Every structure is written in structure tokens, then in C-alpha cells.
Amino acid sequence: MNSYDQLFENNRRWVESVIAKDASFFERLSKFQAPEFLYIGCSDSRVPANEIMGLNPGEVFVHRNVANVVAAIDLNAMSVINYAVNQLKVKHIIVCGHYNCGGVRAAMLPKDMGILNPWLRNIRDVYRLHHTELDAIQDEHERYNRLVELNVQEQCINVIKTAAVQKSYTKNGFPVVHGWVFDLETGFIKDLEIDFPVILKDIQKIYDLSEDE
Ligand code: CO
Q1: If one looks up domain 35-203 in CATH, what number appears?
Q2: How many angstroms is it from 43 CA to the middle of ligand 1?
Q3: Structural domain boundaries of the chain?
Q4: What is the pLDDT of residue 64?
């Protein structure tokens, strides 16, 4: 069996194993979703969202792209955030980057990457914002790791800048935004412990969208 055909075989086995444990699983799954979490992560195949958090189908709403970027004019990311906040009413939004991220690595290279340029610019902008701290790090690998963390932090700020998040938080006290980094070498998640209320207050000096027109 080739690797493509194997996928259907895997699927059949997975269905069997799920039903063996819980006969009505798919019946319940098909009715509705009420995940408490929105996860925004990298497309990298080595960072499977549900698995690293030990969550089942139905437990996390997921958006992934190259280097877990949250850009204000990305209709895809903005639609996901709006739907997760306004319809699903998620309690937590997690931006999860990872060390050894190829997207962040590419952004550090002084090269024309063609169609990737505007996307990588989001990360190059993070470098520019934090260049004093980053340029002071002598070891290149450490500097790269730090950029991964700072990229997560800045993308969290971009999530907090959205009207959906600000309005819901003002009204309901959620969602709370968290920044994580997944360490491929150990499998552990590192919580960057960003201070959500402090960041919210700070960015609302300029980006306050909590009131209607
Ligand atoms: Co990546």
C-alpha cells in the first residue's frame, strides 16, 4: 500500500478505535461544537495542535499558517478570530510558535523570497521593533529562538488589537490571550506568560475598539 492509500486505512482504523471506546462519539460530534480554546499556530507538520495539548475533536478551534502570523488584513485569520470570539465564545486564545520555525528562519535571511516577502515582512517587522534586544544576542541560534518568542508576543498583541477580542473582554471578561512556544526538541510547551490585562490596557491607548461607533 502506498503512503496515500494508507491514509484511508488509517482513517478506518481510527474510526474503529474511537467507536470501540465510545459508541456514540460521532453522533455527539456531529451535533455542535463548543470549544473553549482558539489555537493559532504554525503550519509546520511537527506541531500538531490537538496532540500537543491532549485535546479531542471538538475541543479546540484551530488556525494555522506559516510562522503563526496574525495580520490585520488577513481575511482568513480575522474571520477565524471573529467566529471563535463572537459565535463560539472561546474563553482562551492561544498563539503558539515553535523553535526551529522555518518561517522565522527565512525572515532572518537577507534575501528576496518572492511571494513570501509580504508574509515574512510581518516577522521582519517584529525584528525591527525589537532589534536592540535581538542584536545584543551574540549566539545566532539564541537570537533565532528569541525572535520566535518575540514573534509570538507581537502576534498576541495583534490578536488583542481586534475589535472582537476587545469588545468581548470588556463585556464578558474573556477571551484571555496567551503566548506559547512549542519546543520540538523536548515536546514541551513553554508559556511565555504574557500579561494580557496589562498589554490590553497599554494598546488601548491607541487601538481602543471596545466601543461601538
Ligand atoms: Co514554523
Answers
A1: 3.40.1050.10
A2: 6
A3: 35-203
A4: 98
